[in-house]
Input
Amino acid sequence: MGKPQPRIYDPYYCAGAVVDRLKSLGFHDVYNRNEDCYKVWKERKEPSYDMIVTNPPFSGDHKEKCLRHCGN
Output
């Protein structure tokens, strides 16, 4: 029996390539969907996850919003 896989959440969808890239590294439980993460967070409907692995857009205040969410 192998180690349990971490549940990874990437809230910023960018053509969905992150799922394939993380799977190629052995991570198979990855949530990355084409949805408005700010709406999902506001409604408290984000998936269960162990860690966030993401690259938020550099424009605007996306990085700050993501960090605030992680601090909640």
